[in-house]
Design a protein that fits this description.
six-stranded antiparallel beta sheet; about 375 residues; about 30% helix; alpha+beta; three-stranded antiparallel beta sheet; single chain; 13 strands; Beta-lactamase
Length: about 375
């Protein structure tokens, strides 16, 4: 079964639930950028060395760590890391995993694109309010000129383009013939992968540099990540070690700063990225999932759910969540990054899943 078919099979079609959208300034007045310790540790770029911290000295429960590891191994985890104040507090590999193995992030990699977009805007190459056709070219879709001009970069970042997702076999197709009008841009939220994928082309068109080269120069190389982007049908998926995902998480935890170097200093963009980007799905920022909101929507459905996305997790958690339970959790209040890579632990394989809440039950037992 191809990866495309596995993805497509997850996206069932339900009734459309619409409401008014916000604007590119976001809809949340709260500032999620909880200050973190300015003395946080950063691993050296170009080195495999990474300082550790003793869980016992943190007051964490040793027996619960054993139970956590048993749970992770049983649930198809390959790599697992917890950073506390930048240092490795927990690191374990299961089911054939190792420190050097590269693993696909799937949709958790959307977070990389979000941060890269912020850098491109900070450097003056684009503005989120610009029509995406400015950088994709006229006719990137099958919309009329007027309709196409209404779709901005912000809509691509917030899953609110209004493009037709109702044909399950076009969910990931980025060809113009697959990108048809369904609703006015900004009028409803749907986790439509094709408009997201075009963000990379927008960055390429705006900067004049291939997206991967721009990302490498602005994020990957300065913070010492490894990894590569791999085409998968219409998708482009990032693959890396768990430690590289942890490096990226540490960058975001520290509000775009890396050991005294500013990777992204636009605090307004960072704030909006981590806040409810629109009021159609409170639990979604700029390609990041948000906890602690009053309601949420999930991939593959237009259904509306009340309550928090991950009830057992801290309210300020925001996350990159990918197919087959790839997890990148950022928790500013705990000064913590958590990484989980592996095969699916939950029967629902797309983005958020029941595994998130169960994993946080296990983590709480360790931390408390």
């Amino acid at each position: 079964m191809t990866a495309l078919f596995r993805f497509l099979s997850l996206f069932l079609i339900f009734s459309i639930v619409g409401c008014d959208s916000g604007n590119s300034g976001g809809t949340s007045d709260d500032d999620p950028n909880v200050p973190v310790d300015e003395n946080n540790y950063f691993p050296v770029v170009g080195s495999d060395e990474w300082e550790t911290t003793d869980p016992a000295q943190l007051g964490w429960d040793e027996s619960s760590i054993t139970e956590l590891y048993d749970f992770l191994e049983t649930n198809n985890t390959v790599s697992f890391i917890v950073l506390k104040e930048g240092k490795i507090a927990l690191e374990a590999y299961f089911n054939g995993g190792s420190q050097d193995i590269d693993w696909p992030w799937y949709s958790a990699g959307k977070t990389i694109v979000a941060l890269t977009m912020g850098i491109a805007q900070e450097e003056g190459y684009l503005n989120l309010d610009d029509p995406s056709r400015n950088y994709l070219g006229n006719g990137w879709s099958s919309l009329t000129d007027e309709q196409e001009n209404e779709v901005t970069i912000w809509h691509h970042l917030t899953m609110t383009t209004g493009l037709d997702y109702t044909n399950v076999f076009t969910q990931f197709c980025t060809l113009p013939a697959c990108l048809n009008y369904l609703n006015e841009a900004g009028s409803f939220w749907y986790y439509h992968n094709a408009p997201y994928t075009l963000n990379q082309s927008i960055i390429t068109g705006a900067t004049g540099s291939f997206f991967e080269n721009y990302f490498n120069a602005k994020i990957k190389d300065p913070i010492g990540m490894n990894g590569f982007w791999q085409p998968d049908n219409f998708n482009v998926i990032y693959n890396s070690s768990a430690r590289s995902m942890a490096r990226f998480g540490l960058l975001v935890l520290n509000n775009g700063q890396w050991d005294g170097e500013s990777i992204l200093s636009d605090s307004g963009y960072l704030n909006n990225m981590q806040s409810s980007s629109q009021n159609l799905n409170e639990a979604y920022g700029y390609l990041w999932w948000l906890n602690g909101k009053n309601s949420y929507r999930l991939p593959g459905t237009t259904n509306f759910f009340t309550g928090k996305l991950i009830p057992n997790a801290p309210d300020d958690l925001f996350a990159g969540l990918g197919f087959s339970d790839q997890k990148l959790y950022i928790i500013p209040s705990l000064d913590m990054v958590v990484v989980r890579l592996g095969n699916a632990a939950d029967t629902s394989e797309a983005g958020p899943s029941g595994f998130d809440n169960t994993l946080w039950e296990k983590l709480n037992a360790v931390f408390n």
